[in-house]
Amino acid sequence: MRESLAKKIAWISVISNILLTLGKLFIGWYGNSDAVFADGIHSAADVFASVIVLLVIKISNKPADKEHPYGHGKAEVIVSGIVGILLFLVSIYVVYEGIAGFFHEVETPSYLAMWVAIISYITKIILYRSSLKVAKEHNSKAIEAIALDHKADIVASIAAAIGVLLSIMGERFDIFILHYGDKAASIFVAYLIYKISKEMLLEAFDILLERNIDAATLQEYRNVVNEFPEVKRIDRIRARELGHYVLVDLRISIDHYKTIKEGHDLAKLIKGRMMERYDNIEEVLIHLNPYFPE
Q1: Spacing of C-alpha 20 from chain mean position
Q2: What Rg do the C-alpha atoms of the chain give, in angstroms?
Q3: Which of the pair, 38 or 231, is modelled with greater confidence?
Q4: Beta-carbon count within 10 A of 122 CB
Q5: 283: domain CATH number?
Q6: What DSSP letter does each residue of 225-262 carry, written as one string?
Q7: Domain that holds residue 122
Q8: Is residue 103 packed enough to be buried (19+ CB in 10 Å), middle (13-18) or exposed (0-12)?
Q9: pLDDT digit string (tens) for 172-210?
Q10: CB 118, CB 35: distance < 8 Å
């Protein structure tokens, strides 16, 4: 179910981005709009990202095996990092072209370029909301990466439309500074692309370096363990994300006179309750320590 939904979202993203890429690149070039053309380059990056996601989804959903005892979830994180790097390179290229445009003769963009940007804006709102909903429901980093790409396009497309409109107004009303509205919009688009790439790269690095999950979620896990009166003390609790699932490491102290079977049964109950309460927890590793009252 999870894999089929992810593939469906990725295919929708691929097809829509191909159409938007072709439209924005051609109209941006034909209509003399750097901002729309830059938005087209971003959409081209989205196509590449979506294709990678399609290739990796099957891998990330494979169960744990002998060679990969913790599963294959990090495959999605690697994809997210690759997309982030790609978007960062795109932002550098777009800002370079935008700045260079200030030193050349300005050609006024056409109304067609503005309408293409508006159509892209509407399309991306729909794609972003639907992709993000599925990503949250299934805790998929790969689909979330696609959703973030759509999010960047939303603001980028409306910024491109405004930039084109300002340039047209500058030509019509002979306002010199507005002539460069399209160039300024392309630089703003580059900044938005950079911002999204930064968020994606930082999150990917945190997961790959196995950073502890956020304190609020960790406290929720702690509260579940404290529901068991047999647990005298939580000596250590930590958790790490591996793509769409979480692994929890727990050290607890129980009365020193408890038998191995009693400790085993308690650990099994704690693990079961945590996995029942949080469906993204894949494994709970519990170490028991003897507790001696002072």
Answers
A1: 20
A2: 25
A3: 231
A4: 12
A5: 3.30.70.1350
A6: HTT-TT--EEEEEEEEEETTEEEEEEEEEEETT--HHH
A7: 2-208
A8: exposed
A9: 888 888 888 888 888 888 888 888 788 888 877 776 666
A10: no
